[in-house]
Structures are given as C-alpha cells and as structure tokens.
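Quick one before lunch.
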Amino acid sequence: MESSHLENIIQGIPKAELHLHIEGSFEPELMFEIAKRNKIALKYDSIESLKKAYNFNNLQEFLDIYYAGAQVLIHEQDFFDLTWAYLKKVSSQNVVHVEVFFDPQTHTERGIAFEVVINGIYKALEKAKKELNISYKLIMSYLRHLSEEEAFKTLESSIPFKHWIDGIGLDSSELGNPPSKFARIFEASAKQGYKVVAHAGEEGPVEYIWEALDLLRVIRIDHGNRCLDDDKLVHRLVEEQIPLTLCPLSNLELKVIEKMEDHPVAEMLDKGILATIHSDDPAYFGGYMNENYYAPAKALNLTKNQLMQLAINGFKASWLGDEDKEKHISKVRSYFETVSL
Ligand code: ADE
Ligand code: ZN
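Model of the adenine complex:
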C-alpha cells in the first residue's frame, strides 16, 4: 500500500523513543524462532493463533501474555537478538535516540542470571550506537506486582553493572500497587546515582501520579493520562515541565481510551504539558514510533506545529546532554521548515 502524505512526513521526523519495554518488542516471528532453538513449547501452535490472542480488555490481560512470551528468552544471544531486532526496526523509522526499559525480574524469577539479560541487551545497544548511529540510555524497571524485598534484591544485582544503567523505572500491574509501596527502594536507587521514572496514571488514579512525584521523586512520568482529572496536578506538571511519555496505540489496545479521537495528547499540549509520544510494547499494540505518531495525528488532526512540538519534546524529555539535545532539536526544526501539512 502506498503511504500517505502524513505518513511520509512522520517518517522523516528525527525521533526519540523514551518509553519502550524491550520485552514488548518481541515480535511473534522471532518468539517462535527462539522458542524452537531453545526447545521450549509455546502455548500457541502458530504465529497466527498467537496473534489472535492479542486482544486485550485491560493492562493485566496484556501483561499475562507479555510475561508468557518472555519465558522463551534464555541465553545472552536471545536478549541480543530481541534488542537488535528492535533497534534495526526503529532505525528504519528515523529514531535516533532510545531510552529502553528492561524488566530483569521477569527473567531472574525463572533462574536466568541478571548478567545474561543485561549483557545481551547492552551488546546490541552498543552495536546500534556504532552501526546505526543511535544513541541510547538503559532503564531497569522494577515489577510493581512483586515485593519491595524483591526489588531490593534486583537493585543489589544491578550494582556491578551500574555503569551501563542510567535509570530506574516502575512497571507492571498498576492498580493496587501504588508508588508508595516503592518509596524506600526508589530512595536507595537514587542514592546509587540512578535517575528515576515510574508508570503512573495509566489505569491507576491521579493520586498515583502525585505519589510518583512526591514519594518517588520521579523526573518523568510514564503515561500519566489521568493527570487531566486534576487541575492542580496539571499546573504542577506545567510549572516544573515534568515530561509525560504517552503511548497512544497502547492506550487504545489496553482500553485506557475507547477510541483514538479521545486521546488526551492534543489537550495536554494545549495546556503546556511536556507531552511526548512512544510505543510502549510495539509488537503487541500494532505499531512502532511512526504508527504511534500517525494514529493521534490523524484522529485528532494534529497541526504541523503540534507534530513538531511532540518531536522536540521527545528530545527535551530525554537524558541526553544539553548539547546533543540542541543538535537534535535544531534538526527537527530544520526538517519542519521543509514540509507542509
Ligand atoms: N510493562 C510493559 N508494558 C507496560 C505497560 N503499558 N504498563 C505497565 N507495565 C508494563
Ligand atoms: Zn510502559
């Protein structure tokens, strides 16, 4: 199928991806290939039947399938192949900087060593830096359905690899697992020099966003859709320019929104929130960065200025140094001088 004018414009934008779970980039084709070489039986007998199961009513239904898929990852090579496939794909979409989440507990709980996981991911990121000219940061995420004690063990395991890890995240089942449960581990993580972010206000209430800010002291909120329920919170996010990493296709697939026309990104930009666009779990939600820009752009008739602002915000919200941020932002601005919408 021929791509539309809007798709072509989006393809050309230099982009930063800041909310991506590497396990969520596990495409069914690669999952079957790795399952076969590791002699692990999947619950589904074909790629088609697996894809049919990608029909979620909420976050938990997705997580159950996402964790099941990750079980076939055993060896360093598996983690390398997973990460490399993602990086090649986004490079083809003109993504030039990535900040990648990994969930060590999904693997260490099954007896896979922390170093096996991180070595594979790190080697692929380094290869992408050299061969694809993609810069990166790595974010280790705690699973919030597990205990504080488990998170402390994970922090401990990460210490020998501290120089490879830029930050800490908090993901998995949100409802019933408020940020307050992780206040001490976030404090300990920050003491190690890690930057901190957390998923909040995806399915959970606005109070979880306040807790992430006040108790976990996060510098970025992942999702944060629910902030619009609270004017005082919106004011705080705008005042402090705390970025929200939004994931439109994820929101649609997990029924955080009913239809793309309901996505809050345009309203957030109007209010001066530092909103950014990302893919979350692209293999499960039907699209990588281009598709996540395209869906709201089309449904909400985003203007050229709004698209440019989203791309600029992606770099502003990143953990790149000021000089690199400026370099990318000026490339975004020059690009938009060449296009009309
Ligand atoms: N882990 C992977 N994707 C997630 C999401 N959208 N929310 C919470 N945890 C996740
Ligand atoms: Zn996420």
